[in-house]
Amino acid sequence: MGTQSPGSVLTKQQRIAELAREAPDMAFTNLAHHQDLEWLKEACRRTRKDGAAGIDGQTGQEYAENLEGNLQDLLSRAKSGDHYKAPPVRRVHIPKGDGTLRPLGIPTFEDKVLQRAVVMLLEPIYEQDFLDCSYGFRPGRSPHQALEKARAEMTRMKGRWVLEVDIRKYFDAIDHGHLLEILSHRVRDGVVKRLIGKWLNAGVMEDGRITHPEAGSPGVASFRR
Question: What is the DSSP letter of 187?
Answer without folding.
Answer: B
